[in-house]
Amino acid sequence: MDNKVMQGLLNTWDKGRTTPLVMDGIIGPLSREKIRRFQKEHGLVVDGIAGPITKYELMFYKYKDFEKSEFKCKCGGRFCNGYPAKVEESLLKQLQQIRNYFGKPVIITSGIRCRTHNHNVAGADTSQHVHGKAADIKVQGVSPDLVYSYANQINRDGCVIRYKTFNHIDRRGYRLRLDYRNR
Question: Residue ranges of the Peptidoglycan binding-like domain (predicted)?
Fold first, then answer.
């Protein structure tokens, strides 16, 4: 993420509470102050430097229809802090494409999973959920067949699995198509 993009995302987060940053790519006193405010509000180390953790948290403001909490492990905190992995940006980008295409909310039924929760829900040992590269989704008011068809077109180097009531999308790095409707 370059500095201009980061400044724009900080402006998106700030929602006009303070003077918008000029998106010039220069990290001066105003940018550092806004970074500090962002870090404080998100429970990060407050140092005014947009390192990898701050940039990861900012990434969610790039994909307006999704929040980090939607991807949280469903173990309920019994086995992890909810975020044993980071959501991969290419997954967010693809989910946003699906949202834009159908014009309807994408519901994440399963996002990140810790290994224990993945085992408890009979997830594959090689599950991309544990790496932050997968999501099981439904699109509100759209048949899973239509979602599968579109995901199949746009996810050229990942996996799309068709289940009876939802689809699995992942960014594993190679093409894989499966049909588990009879499971």
Answer: 20-55
Is 1.10.101.10 the CATH number for 3-59? yes
Domain boundaries defined on the chain:
3-59, 68-179
Distance from C-alpha of 137 to C-alpha of 150, rounded to nearest angstrom: 13
Binned average pLDDT, 10 residues per bin, the chain of 183 residues: 95 91 95 97 96 95 93 95 95 97 97 97 95 98 97 96 97 96 87
**Contact status, residue 134 vs residue 170, Cβ threshold 8 Å:** yes
Is 68-179 the same fold as 3-59?
no
* Residue that is written with structure tokens 């500095």 in the block: 3
* Cα 168 to Cα 10: distance, rounded to the nearest angstrom: 31
3-class state of residue 99 by DSSP:
helix
What one-character DSSP code corresponds to residue 46? Answer: -
Q: Say which CATH topology domain 68-179 has.
A: Muramoyl-pentapeptide Carboxypeptidase; domain 2 (3.30.1380)
Percent of the chain with pLDDT over 70: 100
State pTM to two decimals.
0.90
pLDDT in tens, 26-36: 999 999 999 99
Q: Return d(Cα 50, Cα 90) in angstroms, integer.
A: 20
